[in-house]
Amino acid sequence: MQDPTIDEEEYAKKYGFKSNVEYIYKPEKGLSERIIRAISNEKHEPEWMLEKRLEAYKIYREKPMPRWGIDLSRIDFEDFYYYLKPTEKKANSWEEVPEEIKDAFEKLGVPEAERKFFAGTEAQFDSEVIYGNVKKTLSEQGVIFTDIDSALKEYPEIVKKYFGSVIAPSDNKFAALNTAVWSGGSFVYVPKGVKVRLPLQAYFRINSYEFGQFERTLIIADEGSDVTYLEGCTAPIYTKSSLHAAVVEVIAKEGAHVRYVTVQNWSKNVYNLVTQRAHAEKNARLEWIDVNLGGRGNMKYPAVLLKGENASAEILSVSLAGNGQVQDTGGKLYHLAPNTKSKFISKSVSSGDGNTIARFLVHIGKEAANAAVYTKCDAMLIDEDSKASTFPYLENRRSDALQAHEASIGKISKEAVEYIMSRGISEDDAKAMVIFGFINDLVQGLPMDYLLELRRLVKLNIERKVA
Length: 467
Prior knowledge:
The protein is α/β, with parallel strands linked by helices. Helices cover 25% and strands 34% of the residues. The strands form two sheets. Strands 3, 4, 6, 7, 9, 10, 12, 14, 15, 17, 19 and 21 form a twelve-stranded mixed beta sheet that branches. The protein has a ten-stranded mixed beta sheet with strand order 2-1-5-8-11-13-16-18-20-22.
């Protein structure tokens, strides 16, 4: 699966380096029942989890490949490694992490960011979480933040109760694939009434080519609790493809508030096929901030099921597509109870021959009296070959629902660029400033380091150095 479009000199300086790691366990390429049994055995899992994996594998084999979205015809799913184990055990301090892997995360700034901004950090390298740490104050409050492999051993009843309760393997082909071969990912439990003041961070790193990363994240916010979870993703540059197919399940119980933030910056040989969904119970609030910069092809549509009265949700989607990229993103909102509210706002920027596609679905069910929905999709085109499109789907079964929708598409303002350039600023910098102004209101909630890095990546995108 050679990819001749990869040319990412500037990306390579910051993220695109490769670590020379000797994997302690590496099965052959391809996927089979034998491979799945081997992964489960290597992880010393209970029998019920192996049964889930094998059932999901059957579903994966039976389900057809999606006929919409990005072009997946170039992917040979039998040409991937489905499990790579880089180290024997997870470390609780950076000093315990193997030198080559620690060096990779030091270059990415993860330890520094942990010290500055986060209440806890998990770092995944290929198939396994290799580092995890939670501040003592959180542990004293009963907050659990660990990798889901460890949670399966330490909190088996909680994992068994909630694993697959939001996203079943039958949901789609890639949810089935993840359930069959999942490895790594985060487990978060926040007890009743606990407010986690600083964000929890997870960082996912793909180091190998012809490899699939399939982390599984499960977040449970108990009644009246509050938590922010932030994840970042990068990979080295290769001329051969890699695959990322995660599953994220979030449960916000009565009165809980969950904020889920993703800054996706995969290299442009990575296909990103992710399923993310949350349940919001009575008076719960979900916020999803989804920023997509990298990847060759991206299909990601965070979803919230508003299951309880007065539940609310907000999905903010930002996508930047440069040369050779297709960002197919959006969100889904299901109103299933009275007095529920939701908002979906998408802003996309296409440069070079990049293509952004915004899809959103809003369902207002028969029980959703007085539901209120606001949706907005804005797209900006930088060049003549840039593309953007929107596919809204609204299904309303209530006459008392309030719905509002706005959409716009246009080219970058020549006047604004020229005005900024008149102040002695280069054309590339001027365009980057206009673009960041366009998306700024959606990304204000990011930590300062992420905002600064996002500004830099926008500029590189315009300069065609990340193309």
